């Protein structure tokens, strides 16, 4: 919610009344344009999520009302399938629900009486098939103590419109969502109230929904595939190559190049891209390729990769279908759980000259396939490149681990004590779960953890750590959920 600073308004005060004009107010359906997609010369259907937003250039708005209706084009049907009062409106009375609010959805056969109304939660699930209009009337505060400040992008309702109809060979308008004063009994007017006076919003912007014919991506022997991933903070994924996507390749692969870009650079940043530990690292008979170029592009949230396996063209790789090429780490800049960010192959976009998405066989280049979009899907029987969807995961600091299992082998034995000693004094491997290596649960991994682990295994009947008693794991809390400050990157308990 964007609007928290509500102002105190005096109900009757001629001297302090704010002067306004219709041009100070606006209503709009957002987004102003949306699309559904379907095969050319065929029937298409889809859903569009929309909202009604209000803008006021002056303060002390006391209420509003509006009507909204669907206006489908010939050959199309449109229905409202879900309706919700926006959070801004639900908390407009100084953080509380408005003094009066009525939001209703109307059937096509009866535009005078609402068949469905939003309840106390602000949500209405439409259960009849022909909801085609909505009205809303709100009084911020029946006692006229609180009113709104000047607001922009203030949410009034959120709703979903389903659209179906015949799609031609070119994009065509499927219908509009427009403001109206013909719904309700008496008809609801489009007004915003200030100091008891009504103003007709000068801007009443509709939404236009377009039906777009969907094309398809043709066959290509080469695809670039970014694995889906989820996490928070830094998230790792892989780029995999398919050198025989159309099943026609018989030659052997001499090299390849491509670019990867983030489609929303405000939500993600590139951290690293390496071929270490991938198939590419051993492409030349178990060794690295003769030539490999990796370039990071921070502004694009991506990178380019170019490989020549053997500069003498003697060593090649077979046209395999699942070649792990790069291990990539991104930094998620969004923290909203469930939010998604897309990273995808980008052809001739990065670099100077721009890097092309190609593989090379016998000195000839073969262009990579495109990837699916809402307006463009894979043709039947065709394998397309795959864009990667990275989803923000809810961070759970409650980790499952086996206390004392420092080496991560899911067993508790003398090796764990030795592992901690090696980590502390011989630059040994970092414990995969630092919390598990902290055997005495004091928040620090040190010599006492190693000693306790050894004694716990070999002389369990002796008194434990100085100060009395064995640490918690030895007291029966061997495996379970533990709240820890130390990082635990693996889950070792079911």
Structural domain count: 3
How many β-strands, per DSSP?
Answer: 32
Main sheet makeup = 10 strands, mixed
CATH top-level class of the largest domain = Mainly Beta
CATH topology name of the largest domain, in short, is: Immunoglobulin-like
Instruction: Report the oligomer.
Output: single chain
Mean pLDDT: 87
Walk me through what this model shows:
By secondary structure, the protein is mainly beta. The protein folds into 3 domains: 208 residues, Immunoglobulin-like; 175 residues, Immunoglobulin-like (Sandwich), CATH 2.60.40.680; 86 residues, Dockerin domain (Type 1 dockerin domain), CATH 1.10.1330.10. Helix content is 6%, strand content 43%. Strands 3, 5, 7, 8, 10, 13, 14, 15, 17 and 29 form a 10-stranded mixed beta sheet that branches. Helix 2 runs antiparallel to helix 4. The two termini are 39 Å apart.
Describe this structure in a few short sentences:
By secondary structure, the protein is mainly β. It has four helices and 32 strands. Strand 27 (358-361) and strand 28 (364-367) form a beta hairpin.
């Amino acid at each position: 919610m964007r609007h928290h600073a509500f102002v105190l308004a005096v109900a009757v005060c001629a001297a302090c009344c704010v002067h306004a004009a219709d041009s100070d107010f606006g209503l709009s359906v957002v987004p102003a344009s949306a699309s559904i997609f379907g095969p050319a010369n065929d029937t298409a259907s889809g859903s569009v999520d929309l909202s009604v937003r209000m803008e006021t250039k002056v303060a002390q708005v006391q209420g509003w009302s509006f009507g909204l209706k669907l206006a489908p084009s010939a050959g199309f049907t449109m229905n409202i399938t879900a309706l919700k009062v926006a959070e801004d409106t639900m908390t407009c009375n100084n953080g509380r629900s408005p003094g009066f609010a009525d939001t209703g959805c109307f059937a096509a056969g009866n535009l005078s009486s609402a068949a469905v109304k939003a309840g106390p939660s602000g949500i209405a699930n439409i259960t009849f098939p022909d909801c085609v209009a909505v009205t809303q009337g709100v009084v911020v505060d029946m006692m006229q103590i609180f009113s709104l400040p000047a607001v922009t992008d203030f949410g009034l309702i959120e709703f979903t419109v389903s659209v179906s109809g015949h799609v031609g060979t070119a994009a065509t308008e499927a219908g509009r969502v427009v403001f109206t004063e013909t719904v309700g009994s008496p008809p609801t007017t489009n007004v915003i109230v200030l100091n008891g006076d009504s103003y007709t919003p000068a801007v009443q912007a509709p939404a236009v929904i377009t039906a777009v014919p969907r094309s398809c991506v043709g066959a290509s022997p080469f695809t670039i595939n970014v694995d889906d991933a989820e996490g928070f903070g830094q998230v790792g994924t892989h780029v995999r190559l398919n050198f025989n996507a159309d099943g026609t390749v018989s030659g052997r692969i001499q090299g390849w190049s491509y670019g990867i870009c983030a489609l929303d650079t405000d939500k993600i940043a590139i951290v690293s891209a390496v071929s270490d530990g991938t198939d590419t690292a051993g492409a030349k008979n178990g060794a690295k390729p003769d030539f490999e170029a990796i370039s990071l592009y921070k502004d694009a949230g991506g990178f380019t990769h170019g490989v020549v396996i053997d500069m003498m063209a003697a060593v090649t790789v077979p046209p395999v279908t699942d070649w792990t090429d790069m291990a990539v780490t991104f930094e998620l800049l969004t923290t909203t759980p469930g939010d998604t960010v897309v990273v995808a192959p980008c052809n001739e976009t990065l670099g100077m000259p721009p890097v092309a998405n190609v593989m090379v066989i016998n000195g000839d280049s073969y262009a990579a396939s495109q990837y699916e979009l809402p307006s463009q899907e894979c043709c039947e029987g065709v394998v397309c490149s795959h864009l990667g969807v990275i989803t923000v995961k809810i961070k759970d600091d409650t980790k499952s681990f086996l206390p004392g299992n420092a080496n991560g082998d899911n067993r508790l034995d003398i090796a764990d004590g030795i592992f901690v000693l090696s980590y502390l004094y011989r630059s040994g491997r970092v414990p995969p779960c630092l919390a598990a290596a902290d055997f005495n649960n004091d928040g620090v991994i040190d010599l006492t953890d190693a000693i306790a682990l050894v004694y716990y295994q070999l002389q369990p009947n002796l008194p434990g750590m100085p100060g009395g008693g064995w640490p918690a794991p030895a007291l029966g809390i061997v495996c379970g959920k533990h709240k820890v400050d130390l990082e635990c990157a693996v889950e070792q308990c079911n």
